[in-house]
Amino acid sequence: MLLLRIDMLFDGTTIFVTGGAGFIGSAVVRHLLDHTGAHVVNIDKLTYAANLSSIPQAAGHPRYAFAKVDIGNAAELRALFERHRPHAVMNLAAESHVDRSIDGPAAFIETNIVGTFTLLQEALRYWRGLDGGRRATFRLLHVSTDEVFGTLGADGLFTEKSPYAPNSPYAASKAASDHLVRAWLKTYELPTIITNCCNNYGPYQFPEKLIPHMIIKGLAEEPLPVYGDGQNIRDWLYVEDHARALALVLANGRVGETYNVGGRSERTNVDVVRTICDLLDRMAPARAGSRHRLIGFVPDRPGHDRRYAIDAAKIETELGWRAQETFETGLEKTVRWFLDNRAWWQAILDRGYEARRIGVIPASGQAK
Ligand code: NAD
Ligand code: DAU
Fold this sequence. Notes:
368 residues; alpha/beta; three-stranded mixed beta sheet; 13 helices; 15% strand; globular; binds 2'deoxy-thymidine-5'-diphospho-alpha-D-glucose
C-alpha cells in the first residue's frame, strides 16, 4: 500500500541521485527503478568507491541516465539542472570512510563540504527559476549520518534533537554539510530535508567497511582485525531498508525537518565479527577449522566513537517506516550475497584495492 502511494507520487518525476554509483546511492537507484515510476539521473564522480555494475538493471533502462560529474563542478551541475529539470535531488555523493578521513581529510572537505555547498547553490539557482507549482513541490534530500552526533555512553539514543559533536574528520565534514543544508533552508528557503542514519550493510558495499571486510578476509581465512577491545557498538541497518526510508522521506517528509533512521540493532563489533564467522563456517566451511581462530585485536582507531544508537521513533510514527530486516536476516542475506557474487568484489581486489589497515596516525602525526 505504502509502496503504491510512493510509486504514484514519483510517477513521471525526474530525480537526481548524487553518489548513485556508491553503496547506498546504488541501492536508492535500484529502489527507484524497481519500485517507482521515477526517472533517475545518477550523478557520480566515480571515485574508488563507485561501481556502476552495482546497478545491473540500469543497462538500457528507459528511466535511467548517468552523468560522470563532480558535485563540486558548478558549471556541469548547472547544465544537468537545465537539461533534466528535476523534481527532486537526493544527495548521497560523499567521501564516506572514517579511516580514510584520518589519513587524508582534504578530499572529505572538498566533496562533503565544498561539494555540498556547490550543489546547494546550483539547486537554489534552479529552484528560483521554477514556476509556482514546481517550486512548491521541489525537494533536496541531504543524506547524512549519526556520526555527526559524536559518541554515546552506555545509555541513551540519538534523537533529532541531539547536539552535534563530531569526532572524526569524516564526521566533522558531514556535520558541516548538514549545517550548510540547514542554512540554505533558513536563509534562502530552499526546501530541504536531512536524514541521519546509522551503519548500513548489505550487497555491493565496498570492502573497506567492517562487514564486507570481515566476510572477504574470513573467506580467504586471513586475520580478522578488530580495532581496540572490540566493545564499540554500532546500530546496523540493512541498506535496502535505508533506501526505502529515503524514498519515503522524499515523498512524505516535511520540509525543514530532520529524520533519524536506525535499525534498532545494536551490536558490539566483536559480536558482529563472531556472527560473520558462524555464518561463513556454516555456508562455506573453512579448511582449518572455525574462523573464530582468525579474530585478533589490533590498535584502536584514533578518536574511535564508543557507541552509536538511533531513536527511530520519528520516522516510524510520522511516516510509518519500519526496518523489514532484522540484523540476523540481513546479515545472512549479505554473507550469501558475497558468496554468490564473488566476481563483483574480486574485480575490486584485482584493480588494486589491498584491504590493508589504514587510519593509524604515523609517529610524525602528519596527515596528508
Ligand atoms: P560510498 O563511499 O559507498 O559512495 C559514495 C559515492 O559518492 C561514490 O559512488 C563516489 O564515487 C561518489 N562521490 C564521491 N565524491 C563525489 C563527488 N565529489 N561528486 C560526485 N560523486 C562523488 O558511500 P555510501 O556508504 O554509499 O554513503 C552514501 C551517503 O550516505 C554518504 O553521504 C554517507 O555519509 C551517508 N551515510 C552512509 C552510511 C553507511 O553506513 N555507509 C550511514 C549513514 C549515512
Ligand atoms: O554510523 C554511520 C557511519 O557508519 C557512516 O556515516 C559511515 O559512512 C560508515 O563508514 C560507517 O562508519 P563506521 O566508522 O562506523 O564504519 P566502519 O565499517 O569503518 O567501522 C565499523 C566499526 O568497526 C567501527 O567501530 C570500527 C570497527 N572496525 C572497522 C574495520 C574496517 C574494526 O574493528 N575493524 C575493521 O577492520
